Amino acid sequence: MPQIQEKRYIMSKTLLLIFSLLFCVMPACTPGAYQPTTANLEARQWFQDAKFGLFIHWGVYSTLANGEWVMQNARIPVTEYEKLAAEFNPTEFDAAAWVALAKAAGAHYITITSKHHDGFAMFDSKVSTWDIVERTPYGKDPLKLLADECHKQGIKLFFYYSQLDWHHPNYFPRGKTGQFTGRAESGHWHRYLDFMDAQLKELLTNYGDIGGIWFDGWWDKPEADWKLERTYRMIHRLQPQTLIGSNHHRAPFDGEDFQMFEKDLPGENTAGFNQDASIGSLPLETCETINTSWGYNKADGKFKSARELIHYLVRAAGRNANFLLNVGPMPNGNIQPEFTTRLKELGDWLKQNGEAIYTTRGGPVAPQTWGVTTQKGNTIYIHILRDLSAPLQTVSLPLTGRVVSAKYLNDSQAVQFDRIAEGIQLKKLRQPKADEYDTIIVLELAKE
Ligand code: FHN
Predict the structure, then answer these.
(1) In angstroms, rounded to a whole number, what is the distance separating the alpha carbons of residues 100 and 421?
(2) What is the dihedral of CA 263, 265, 270, 271, to 10 degrees?
């Protein structure tokens, strides 16, 4: 190599090295670089204490009463799908009533779809015309009404936001879905990401304190460069306490504040969503539907019973996870009675038994076939979720601490127990009544 060329080569290599060193000590390059603020860490504690949230899937798809995937499943092109907006007029929507319902159910937060996969913004977005204010006869921003009411009634609001978009022209190259929309086979991915960040900025600027952003849809393009670090950093800069979670069905990514599971308890994978999701150290949440649909689905009558839903909540708490229970409101803004009655039953149960759920953490005994344990300081709650046809007489608990008392939560009656080599054995357990969903025994451990 001639001398002058060699010098240039060495200089450019040196500059490259200096740049790499400079940038790699910066958070962007370092895995695990995200340092949550104190406000964020406090919000995580609050979240774990809250234990129960109401999930709401509501959008222009609700008009077809066939779930939130109807655009994809029925292969509706964008030009046809857009016509639905003219029919979406939720005149019965009452934000105060929705928040009151969530509270009556015992939920401490609401997570609502601000934009689902159909790209339709359920809020007043200035960076899109595909939104409820511009396209529908309703013409109002329901998320603003809901946010104001949540703040008034003291309940936190989280926004679900779909990164996957079946409507935006720049969501290109396409992912695994959205292939029947009739969009031009071209687009600028980086412009889509800018648009998404602009919408998120609106959500974090115009709606007061936001409890969290619940991302979904990353799984549509797992190989793409989503520039997550940029998006997550912006969210935490605008509202440091906002908790970021993503339903990517993987172990958490750097910058996230909680880990979520879909239609399964943490550690389980019966629904097939959680193949890669090993449990990390962040707060946990699992979401589930009341029937089998997220968005309003008129034909779906497979409602879970209050007993099943309460068991899900208890089993989640025993695994140290929150439960996010979904409703899909109707297009007119009403929530169907099959949902409201079950939510009220949950709320009634929590009024009696919430002590053993709220502000607890997963207990010292791993989940068992008979149930789970939760814990708050020296108090351990034994949740016996028994099958009424096969009641239990005894339960053995491998506990290291010394038990000073054991009693039923509902009437404080003492429970007999023996000390055994491995811990204690609760005995002569009384038989549950048919409407007793969870027999809760409170153990007090000696303060060491
Ligand atoms: O595709 C969505 C689905 O519509 C719904 O929003 C659920 C909620 O967890 N998440 C996605 C599937 O993983």
Answers:
(1) 49
(2) 20
Q: Centre a 10 Å sphere on the Cβ of residue 91 and count the other Cβ atoms it contains.
A: 10
220 lines ligand 1 (CB under 6 A): no
Give residue 239's identity as a one-letter amino acid code: Q
pLDDT (mean) for 361-380: 97
- At 140-199, the pLDDT tens digits run 999 999 999 999 999 999 999 999 999 999 999 999 999 999 999 999 999 999 999 999
Q: CB of 202 closer than 6 A to ligand 1?
A: no
By most ligand atoms within 8 Å of CB, the mutation choice from 216, 218, 258, 293 for ligand 1 is 216
Closest ligand 1 atom number to CA of residue 262? 9
Q: Indicate if ligand 1 lies below 6 Å from the C-beta of 118.
A: no
Q: 1 pLDDT exceeds 60?
A: no
> What is the secondary structure of 130-194 as a DSSP string?
-BHHHHSSS-S-HHHHHHHHHHHHT-EEEEEEES--SS-TT--S--SS-TTS---S---HHHHHH
| Whole-number pLDDT of residue 31 | 54
The pLDDT tens digits for 294-319 are 999 999 999 999 999 999 999 999 99
